[in-house]
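Chapter review: from sequence to fold.
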Amino acid sequence: MQNAGIFRRQAVEALAAGGWTKPVARAFERFLELERTESWVRIRALFALGFLQHRDPTVRDSLAAACDHAYSNLQENPTRIQIAEMATALFAVGDCFGAAGVPERDVRQMRNNIREILESLTKEPMTENDNMFPVSRATAYLLTFMILPRAGRDEDLAEVLLKELRSHRDGTTRELSRWALKNRIDETGTVKPLVHAEI
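The token string follows.
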């Protein structure tokens, strides 16, 4: 939980190596349930929960609840730290459920749990303000790593939303969205491995 990224990563890696990810994930889930007001400390817990890479239904529900909580804070003149919490929640989802090898059903379920939020952040103008660019970037990141193959002729949700973001006012959001559409899915709707992406 300390504010030092390298040491936090080392601590999470030690927990994973020691087989402690499940009980620690439960502890972070409970912490997020109890701590509702201090965004700065919720951000640290969300980072750790996403980085633990422990994917199960309770982690999925906890991350979805964290996205709901952060999104509700955006509705009325959010502070900088509340905006950061929304971005961190989206990054945590992408880190945890966007990793290689995650079953498609788990990715789809996680996305479905926050679908309304993702659609709002991409289709409504709220992220066009400069102070909200971290949220649009986090949304593009999540969609880039959680893209799924097309179902027949129907475009995947991530593909549809990335097409919305490819004309975003923020240059970084635009570039990432365009890169993802070019490198993560081909013309047949098949998802391409990251190792085949252009640098």
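Two observations follow directly from the output. The chain has a mean pLDDT of 92. The chain has one domain: 5-196.
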